Target: MFS transporter
Amino acid sequence: MIYSRIGGRNTTLDDPFDLRFANCLLKFSTNKFKISLLILGFMKQRLYALFLLTTVLRIVGDAIEGVSLPWHLLNKTNSLLSIAGYSLASMLPWVIFPPLIGNFLDRTEKKVRLAFLALFAQSFLAITLVRFAQDVRIFYLLISLISALDTLHRYYGFSLIAFMTLEESELQKLNAKVQTIGGVTSLFSFPIMGYLAYLFGIKLMLLDALFLLIGALLLVPYINVSVRRGESRKEKECLKIEISRKIVFAGIILILTFNFAIASARIFIFNALRTLAKGEVLYGLLRSLGTLGSLISAFGIVFIAHKFRIGILKPLVIGMMLESLAVLFLGFSLLPLLLAGVLLLSFGGEILNISFDSLFQKVIPLERLGTYRGVFDALATLIIPISQLTFAWLIEKGFNVPMLAFIAFGAGIIATLGFYVIVSDVIG
Model:
């Protein structure tokens, strides 16, 4: 029999007074738990909405930086090498810093505070860029620092979505919303910022600094919020550590093999266009077609994930298959196949990117998520130029282009099937 100590007397819970008191305590605890869940859910949604807003501000900032900075360098030096230097300064941090920043982000629960500091620091650096616009060396250094801090904001959002849910369709929807909003913002911001850069030059970076500062200030009320998963998932987290080893050691090799095959698409496109009149014009149209394909794909996932439980595995495999088929099409210098290939490449690529983000967020523990993703991103960034240099060299040496495209297609399909076996064994 269970005894309780109430009012200095030993009684059983058969006492009507004790039963009423116990029921009141139970109701109070239940209501308190429900209120806590509601507050937590509201906070998660608020942080996600703020992340979407800061993403928009960052993409507008990227458009400002992507237009005003290289054109400032070109006007100052009158050398194309300055453009190559800009590309190196902006891309090198994405090779070096992702594992370091990912690990740093994993070590703290105050991830919002780091996102605030990153945006605030970028705002300061954007102003400093205007001040040192005439010193090319300092200019390149500041560009690299801004790019490095971009990785921190990206991984903050990546961890935030993993913190919000583990349900597959929800992960797909949340990631797809980020890509959709980012794609639409990019589509409109680059032409507008291009015109403003023509009018104001490097001083347009002051507008970038303002947007970054606004984004930082929006996060101030939440800088002490802890981003972590609940203790009730401890056993699940232990399982995830074992799963993540499979993905890191086997899955990552297959994905890098796939990336090596698919990265050849850019070389095939330029090889086809260099034989055509007005190839530059057609390339611009193909870029627009690619952007459209990505937007349709991301919006489609948002809509389908809202209506149906689409999961992760099927969209991921479909995306990989479509990209593999696209590479095969691009190996033939025929305009209809070129158009179809670019559309499939962007459409399938967006499905793959969204699903791969969701896969990482589902199976990797939150305290290791940034580190593992950082290592993968660094390797994936390195594999792209290696692939493109390899295929470009083979084409220049006279290898049959359709045959190379078929080899890339085959490698993509084999990697897809291998990855499907691993992931289906992990998440079913």
Remarks:
- The domain at 46-222 is CATH 1.20.1250.20 (Growth Hormone; Chain: A;).
- The two ends are 46 Å apart (CA to CA).
- The first strand starts at residue 3 and ends at 6.
